[in-house]
Design brief:
Blueprint: E1 14-18, H1 27-32, H2 37-45, E2 49-56, E3 62-70, E4 74-82, E5 88-92, E6 96-106, H3 117-123, E7 131-139, E8 144-155, E9 158-169, E10 172-182
Antiparallel strand pairs: 1-2, 1-10, 2-3, 3-4, 5-6, 6-7, 7-8, 8-9, 9-10
Amino acid sequence: MAAPAEKTIKNLNGKWVMNKSLSDDFVQILKLQGVGLLLRNTIGYATITLDIKQYDNEQGVTQIDVSQTGTGGLKGTDEHRILDWSERSHSDRIFGDVTGRTKWVKIPGGFEPGYGAEEAEFLGKDWEGDEVVLSWVRNEKAGWSAVQVWGFQVINGERRHARHVVVNKGKEKLQERLVYDYQG
């Protein structure tokens, strides 16, 4: 279902279900990140639901908490993103020990040096409005890093929540778009 007008990058609260027919095949990203075959296949076949709570925390900084579940209640990753660009580490049951940071970014041109021209073009492409969420994470042990940009796009004539994801591991790089339907 298309996102209603009141859902914006400043108000992601609600349930969002991955639309696999509009999303790119993210299973190859999971493989590059070292997720095992059985878990990759399980995630690939599951319907992924994001339960998002977005609010200003006690320090007055935007925080986005995301609880992911798959078909049949399969527990996914819980994300607690504080948009202040401070590095935070946590142990993730799917992605291992990771360090990440998240912030608001103005577009176009809000991506600092370090992203190649191709990555910056993909990350900054087709967004509604002039601000998006930028999230960066790395798993030092597994040797990969990932950048995500979250926002809204018009896809096939309907407004949807989307995420552009770029994962790098050594000389390998994958770029994928994930698209979500609003469920209330």
